[in-house]
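DM from R.C. (forwarded with permission)

"hey, sorry to bug you on a friday — could you get me a structure for this? deadline for the figure draft is monday and I only need the backbone to look sensible"
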Amino acid sequence: LAWAKCDTIQGRWLEAEQHLHRAHDLFRELADLPGQARVLVNLGIAMSFVDRYDQATAWAQRAHALYTDLGDLDGQAGSLANLGLYQVRLGDFAAGRDLLVRAREKFAALGHRAGQALADSNIGLACQALGDYQQAIACQHTAADLLAELGDLASQAEVLRDLAIAYLADGQQAQAIQAC
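My reply, with the result:
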């Protein structure tokens, strides 16, 4: 798994995919379901880096099923967030938003505020793509506030950029300037 992560970081997608498949086979032989789920998540992420969102979705769905069978709420939340993001990337904004809302609810139940913020920001992007600018603005505000409380200024800056874009899409130039 570590080799696959190194390959992914270095942009060696084919090598990363091969390492991940080997890791999955090993975890399957060991009957290690949590290990299999982690590998499936990483396969999805690796596929998303090369814009293979259909494949990313398939891996994330399998990971989510395993996490559900295991009763792993954190894994379920993360895999739902990945699934939602992949659906947004595939252009199914409503399905993506709905999956992200489910992920946010699970992150909130777990007290995982960084996960909530990420989900809120991505829900905002989906809402913006659907033309629901007021909801997009509300979600980006919530995400920015959570990230400020967590002290994650780099992520907050990205969210504030997305907030400004949502304001611009809604025709609110003055608010867009203030958001930056």
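R.C.: lifesaver. The radius of gyration is 17 Å.
me: no worries. DSSP finds ten helices and no strands in the chain.
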